[in-house]
Design a protein that fits this description.
By secondary structure, the protein is of the alpha/beta class. Helix 3 crosses helix 11 and helix 12 runs parallel beside helix 14.
């Protein structure tokens, strides 16, 4: 008996395993391969010698909660109550899973916008909910007519991912205004906003739900220190939500993980005093521009990348194969791993697109590009 009978092994695991088998350059899975900030390592070394190894309070280390509240005010001018509105989680994915399982009951419907990150649907299914997958437009903008058509009296949640994985698109002001108008008609719907790439934006600023008074009182916002500080293996993130929703989320969280790594929380609480998130965005902008410039001579067509550390390309000038087969061929014959975009769609929509991760050293990007340009 399986709660997820139709859910296969994650495409990220499949492609990474194949890349390892063939010794390919891995631009598939979204993790940086460059060193973390030496200052972060120094703080970690220091704090390992101190009394930082026991349970923290369930909701998070008090000093980290204070820093998150301060950061949220500095970036978004939103005041948060550290006692009732913030929860430190074992990565954003755990926060998203916990949120869905705390708020979705058997038979509830959850609107998910395709293409989407692959953890949303399984979380809904485990909660007994029904995922309602609705495709974005060709340019990956939200189609509010389709979204409204997908809403019923059973719809209890809409999941938004901005900046968007896998496409790198960022929502515009007019789109948030349209979302506010739509949700005013449906007071039963809560918004789960996955903003793990919030500090990695380029061509336009990221607009957080934290800045939308009409939405934030009915929204849960997921953030990721793993993504923002390029320490993905630490698996640490946080949620911000109004007390009425956070109260229910904490009930599930306490029996799922109870509290998150004490050392990680202490280190990040100290590191937030010195880290510059603008510098993080500039670093990824340099890598995006480098990777795009290196691929200018290739037969790949590059789509816009407004945020995240992912570059989507079209390969229709190279091959007529479906994207999964071409992604495997790219590994086995050309030595570079990517993710096929069709896996992010419920119906496997195949537009001959691949996603490359450019959160890599310049040397890695140059080596990968040399192989891609030669195809």
């Amino acid at each position: 008996m399986s709660k997820l009978p139709h859910i296969p092994t994650s495409i990220f695991s499949v492609m990474s395993q194949l890349a390892n088998e063939y010794g390919a350059i891995n631009l598939s899975q979204g993790f940086p391969n460059f060193p973390v900030d030496q200052r972060l390592l120094d703080i970690t070394k220091q704090l390992t010698q101190e009394n930082t190894h026991q349970y923290t309070p369930m909701a998070g280390l008090s000093s980290l909660l204070e820093k998150i509240s301060q950061l949220t005010y500095e970036k978004y001018v939103r005041k948060t109550d550290i006692a009732t509105e913030i929860l430190v989680t074992a990565g954003a994915t755990q926060g998203i899973y916990t949120t869905i399982n705390a708020l979705i009951e058997n038979g509830d419907e959850v609107v998910i916008l395709d293409p989407c990150y692959d953890s949303y649907e399984p979380s809904v299914l485990v909660a007994g909910g029904k995922p309602v997958r609705i495709a974005l437009n060709e340019d990956y903008a939200p189609n509010f007519n389709r979204i409204e058509e997908g809403i019923t009296s059973k719809t209890k949640m809409l999941i938004l991912n901005n900046p968007h994985n896998p496409t790198g698109r960022i929502w515009k002001e007019s789109e948030f205004e349209a979302l506010e108008t739509l949700l005013e008609k449906h007071p039963q719907i809560v918004l789960l906003s996955d903003e793990v790439y919030e500090y990695i934006s380029f061509t336009q600023p990221h607009i957080s739900i934290n800045t939308r008074p009409k939405l934030r009182d009915r929204a849960i916002i997921a953030s990721s220190f793993g993504k923002s500080l390029h320490v993905t293996g630490w698996k640490i993130g946080y949620l911000i939500a109004p007390e009425k929703l956070m109260h229910e989320i904490k009930k599930v969280h306490q029996f799922l993980v109870f509290s998150v790594s004490s050392l990680s929380q202490n280190v990040i609480a100290s590191y937030l005093d010195i880290v510059d998130f603008d510098a993080v965005a500039k670093m990824y902008l340099q890598k995006r521009d480098l990777f795009r410039s290196l691929l200018e001579g290739s037969r790949f067509t590059l789509l816009p990348c407004e945020g995240t550390y992912f570059q989507v390309v079209n390969y229709d000038k190279i091959s007529s194969k479906n994207d999964t087969d071409f992604a495997k061929e790219l590994i086995t014959h050309h030595g570079v791993a990517a993710i096929p975009i069709s896996v992010f769609y419920e119906d496997g929509t195949d537009k001959q697109m691949l996603r490359f991760c450019f959160a890599k050293t310049d040397e890695t990007l140059i080596a990968a590009a040399e192989k891609l340009v030669s195809i």
